[in-house]
Amino acid sequence: MTLPSILVFATALFVAAGSPGPSIAALVARVLSKGWRDVLPFVVAMWVGEAIWLSFAVAGLAAVAESFQAVFVAIKWIGVAYLLYLAWKMWFAPATVGGEDLPESRSATRMFFAGLAVTLGNPKIMIFYVALLPSIIDLAGVTLTGWLELVAAMLVVLAAVDLAWMTLAAKARQLLKSPRAVRISNRISAGTMAGAAAAIASR
After folding, report:
1. Distance CA 180, CA 187 (A)
2. Distance from C-alpha of 85 to C-alpha of 56, rounded to nearest angstrom
3. Contact assessment for residue 180 and residue 101, using Cβ atoms and an 8 Å cutoff
4. CB 170 within 8 A of CB 33
5. pTM recorded for the entire structure
6. CB 3.0 to 4.6 Å from 176: which of 18, 73, 76, 181, for a disulfide?
7. Residue 28, C-beta contacts closer than 8 angstroms, at least 6 positions apart
8. 131-173, pLDDT tens digit by residue?
9. How far apart are CA 146 and CA 151, in angstroms?
10. 3-state helix, strand, coil in the chain (%, to 5)
């Protein structure tokens, strides 16, 4: 891959990933509700999911992905259902300051698969890699080394975007000094999470 091609890809991905969407909404809502440590498996799974879509595109499996559309629709609805479940849990969560220490927040496996389902089933991400990426990069000429370079660029961009959102949400969470403020934050986070689920479901 040439440096200009990687920069074009990174710029396009930065614009797409930086614009708030269902995945970012779910990420921010979870940080506000439980803290940044609890959300790390979720965000790592988001990166893995994007790497899977990028690999599909580079390997020329876009048509295969479309053939298995029913599978990705099922994954989408699993992600929607889990986001709604998290929204329900957030809405009724105890108004405890420093709630990231709750036992519920330690299920890393569930959070990982939730992030993976949300990413694999997110139409916005799917469209970027399957429909838009081929118009940005000549995928037919991408070698194994080129794929690794694209994955590395993708991880740098996503880490910068997602960690920035996580930092902002964590800073906002530090302002929650009373049970009432925590309760309000939990309700806002629940509404945001439910909105993310609705946004994915409607596409």
Report:
1. 11
2. 30
3. no
4. no
5. 0.71
6. 181
7. 165, 166, 168, 169, 192
8. 788 888 887 788 889 899 999 999 999 999 999 988 888 887 7
9. 9
10. 85, 0, 15
Instruction: Calculate the CA 30 to chain-centre distance.
Output: 11
Q: From the CA atom positions of the chain, what is the Rg in Å?
A: 18
In angstroms, rounded to a whole number, what is the distance separating the alpha carbons of residues 113 and 106? 14
Q: ∠ at Cα 80 (14, 58), nearest 5°? A: 40
User: What tokens appear for 171 in the block?
Assistant: 């800073």
Q: Computed from CA positions of residues 62, 66, 72, 76, in that sequence, does the dihedral angle turn out positive or negative?
A: positive
pLDDT in tens, 13-26: 988 887 767 778 77
